[in-house]
Amino acid sequence: VWIKNSLRPKVEGTRVAAETPRAAHTVKAIAWKRGISTVNLRAPRMLGAHGFLKTMFDIFERHGVEVDVVTTSEVSVSVSLENGAPPAALLADLGGLGELTVSRERTIFCVVGEGLRDTPGIPARILQALGNLPVEMISLGASKINLTFVVQDAHADEAAQQLHSEFFP
Question: Could you tell me which residues come within 8 angstroms of residue 58 by beta carbon, excluding any fewer than 6 positions away?
Answer without folding.
Answer: none
